[in-house]
Amino acid sequence: MRAAVPRTGGFEATGHGYHPPMQVFRRGDTGPVVAEIRDKLTRLGLPSGEPGSHDSFDELTDRAVRAFQQRRGLRVDGVVGPETYRGLDEAHWRLGDRLLSFTAGHPYVGDDVAVLQQRLLDMGFDPGRCDGIFGRQTETSLREFQRNVGLVPDGTVGPQTLKALDMLRRTVTGGSPSERREEERLMRGGGALSGRTVLLDPGHGGEDLGAYAHDLSESDVVFDLATRIEGRLGPLGVLTLLTRGPDSCPDDAQRATFANDTGADLLLSLHADAAQSARPAGVSTYFYGAELPGRVISSAVGERLATLIQHEVVARTDLTDCRVHPKAWQLLRMTRMPAIRLDVGYLTNEHDATRLGSPAFRDVVAEAVVAAVQRLYLPGGGDVSEGQFRIPALIG
Ligand SMILES: [Zn+2]
């Protein structure tokens, strides 16, 4: 049984959904929300703090939060903001804890849903991406499963369905069906780049400048970069869309919804980094991936695209290679197409800021990104060595 905890500090219980806290919780904080956070960490098997002070966020809590963030592919900072809170909430659900079904508007989200999706996939059904969100496609494939095993196809995971899922569980080796489907989609239409839709997502915007240092704002730098990428994709027959204009700032959920509504083939999210110290520098690229109990889920095509972009940018610039990482950030996870996020240098680092302040440099980065996208759609995509791929050679 779950203890009833007073919902304070911005929490608002809404049926089975919830609104994540608007504020953040970190070391030194106390109160009922901290108690709830510690309770969730404990249930996940993490020592969540000194016993006897169950509502204080102490050093052990900080360590537990970091361990959890590491495990889930979240930003590791020991701070519980909306994203980490959401992760904690989702992680504690086990398949069978609650009756799952499709509910429009407020879908069930959690690790129990991800496990259900994985089992359906393993049996050859298609619940869509294993993202832990009970959407329409999960419902459709669940009904199909129920029909197949002679149950009432009510689209609800009740005791009978749970039993059937358990009995029919089998292990699939080799590439997972979700990876194969992603692959098939990539190669649709002979794998040509022309005719594809690429959605560019410059981070922040409007009042939200993102990082700001050395007279540069992240929102301006990445918007400019997006337009340079757009200018290069057009001549290749690619339809390019942007998630925002120069002065607007949709939130991640709105960006993800827009991406899914457009049915774009790829999503490229563009950011720059900032740090407390001037030392951190370099470029990293992220793709969707997370560690759930007992297994790792990730987007294979997303990883390949992230790797190509990272290699191209590193080969063509003198930015430090901070490598490619799986992340479960909302935008990467909620979008149905392969999605990556490029963090192109630290504005707080003098070297990186000097580079990013130069239009010629941003052109080079744009060219690198476009070359990577082209390579993704080439048969045997990874064969061309980095930095050798010039765009004019591919036209005509
Ligand atoms: Zn950013």
Walk me through the structure.
By secondary structure, this protein is an alpha/beta fold. It folds into three domains: 12-91, PGBD-like superfamily/PGBD (Muramoyl-pentapeptide Carboxypeptidase, domain 1); 111-172, PGBD-like superfamily/PGBD (Muramoyl-pentapeptide Carboxypeptidase, domain 1, Orthogonal Bundle); 189-394, 3-Layer(aba) Sandwich (Aminopeptidase), CATH 3.40.630.40. Helices cover 39% and strands 14% of the residues. The chain has helices at residues 32-43, 59-72, 82-91, 111-122, 136-148, 159-167, 177-186, 218-233, 252-262, 300-316, 330-334, 350-356, 359-376, and strands spanning 12-14, 17-19, 197-202, 212-213, 216-217, 239-242, 266-273, 283-292, 295-298, 321-327, 339-346. The strands form three sheets. Strands 3, 6, 7, 8, 9, 10 and 11 form a seven-stranded mixed β-sheet that branches. A two-stranded antiparallel ribbon has the order 1-2. The chain has a two-stranded antiparallel ribbon with strand order 4-5. α8 (218-233) crosses α13 (359-376) and α10 runs antiparallel to α13. 43% of the residues are buried. The model is unreliable at 1-20, 170-175 and 382-396 (pLDDT under 50). Residues 203-204, 210, 218, 271 line the site of zinc ion.
Secondary structure layout:
Layout: E1 12-14, E2 17-19, H1 32-43, H2 59-72, H3 82-91, H4 111-122, H5 136-148, H6 159-167, H7 177-186, E3 197-202, E4 212-213, E5 216-217, H8 218-233, E6 239-242, H9 252-262, E7 266-273, E8 283-292, E9 295-298, H10 300-316, E10 321-327, H11 330-334, E11 339-346, H12 350-356, H13 359-376
Helix pairs in contact: 8-13, 10-13
The structure holds zinc ion (ZN).
Zinc ion binds at residues 203-204, 210, 218, 271.
